[in-house]
């Protein structure tokens, strides 16, 4: 990923937080049949000596046959993003030298891919994903709420995906290249929009602006 210096995110905790808070990944692979992309929720696991991304695909998906074991893959995690109008910039009213852009937060994770078929591994993964996304609900659903025979049948229909992380990088493109008055204009304009996504980006622009 091309990352201009002022948009580069070097805080590893910020990168991992983005992955956890926006876990629906685009998994990009390359095989003899060509490039491919899958979309799946991923679970981040921190071990003492390594980082792992875990997920699963349908067994009917040919990826686990076409992509070789230990092949290099890319997982893309998209954070908040929105359109930025030149009208947000006070400088535009002075000289008109402004064009639209897009503010966004994204993390790229590269690593080595392996496929998992062991049912105990798959059950632990499904249970982990469930707990991750049900934990804040008033009445969380649990894998144990479903009949064992039903869960067992579904486990036969999936293949686990595990990526050992080798590189993680992030881009926080949040108007840091603009002068202070334009940054303030972006924050004000996005907050006035009434759009939840834009207001979220406004908060990030404020946090990322040069002090």
Structure description:
α6 (180-192) packs antiparallel against α7 (196-208). This protein is of the alpha+beta class. The longest helix has 16 residues, at 119-134. The protein is built from 7 helices and 8 strands; from the N terminus they run βαββββαβαβααβαα. Strands 1, 2, 3, 4, 5, 6, 7 and 8 form an 8-stranded antiparallel sheet that branches.
Care to count the β-strands?
Answer: 8
Give the end-to-end Cα distance, rounded to a whole number of Å.
26 Å
- What integer value in Å does the Rg equal? 21 Å
Overall 3D form: elongated
Order of helices and strands: EHEEEEHEHEHHEHH
Which stretches are poorly predicted, pLDDT < 50 over at least 5 residues? none
Mean pLDDT: 94
Largest sheet: 8 strands, antiparallel
Q: Helix count, per DSSP? A: 7
Strand content: 35-45%
| Class from helix and strand fractions | alpha+beta
- Helix percent reads 25-40%
SSE blueprint:
Elements: E1 8-9, H1 12-21, E2 24-31, E3 34-41, E4 43-47, E5 50-58, H2 63-66, E6 71-84, H3 90-95, E7 101-116, H4 119-134, H5 148-155, E8 158-173, H6 180-192, H7 196-208
Antiparallel strand pairs: 1-8, 2-3, 2-6, 4-5, 5-8, 6-7, 7-8
Short summary:
This protein is α+β, with helices and mostly antiparallel strands and 211 residues long. It is built from 7 helices and 8 strands, in the order βαββββαβαβααβαα. α6 (180-192) runs antiparallel to α7 (196-208).
